[in-house]
Amino acid sequence: HTSYKGGIIAKAGSGWNSLADVTKASSFSPNQDIAFVKNSSTSGFRYPKNLLAEHGIRQDGEANTYIFSGSHENSLSHLLSGETQLIAVDLEAVDQLSDSAKQQIRILESYEIPYHAYVWSPTLAEEVKITLANAMFEAHKNPGFRAVFDNPLDIQKWVSQNDAAYNPLRRGLH
């Protein structure tokens, strides 16, 4: 995998099938009715905040005025309990829900986020860049490096990715 998915989610009974429906809802208040994960979360705040703004759903104020749940699971709990009308989370958290809980939510929009990038300084000699890349891309074959890949994201190896793969992320973070 070179990316993961996030989503903006509402309760299934909200009558909302898309973000366009949310913008038309007179009972919706962006400053009170959206729960984000935390201000450092790419899938649970940074990217969806800008995606919502692109759909005309803007929040007033600074990041400290937003509702932050603290985790993807907490955001889902807030939505399911009715404490909020809309959330943004990593869709991996949705996969962990029970089947009955999954039936209570509707993903209004999903988005792909590339995993973290490792980049070389342009001042590095080409030979050094090649040596580093070869070491990284072969590391998963070395038993001594297995602990590096024992992670909750299920990242199994480093792969090469072209710069254009990060354009959607750049769009969402400006």
Can you give me a brief rundown of this structure?
This protein has 174 residues and is an alpha/beta fold. The chain contains eight helices and five strands; from the N terminus they run E-H-H-E-H-E-H-E-H-H-E-H-H.
Number of strands: 5
Strands of the widest sheet, in order across it, are 3-2-4-1-5
Tell me the overall shape.
elongated
Parts with pLDDT < 50 across at least 5 consecutive residues: none
Arithmetic mean pLDDT? 84
Q: How many helix segments?
A: 8
Rg: 19 Å
What is the percent of helical residues? Answer: 25-40%
Amino- and carboxy-terminal Cα gap? 25 Å
Strand content: 15-25%
Structure classification: alpha/beta
Q: Mind describing the biggest β-sheet? A: 5 strands, mixed
**H-E string:** EHHEHEHEHHEHH
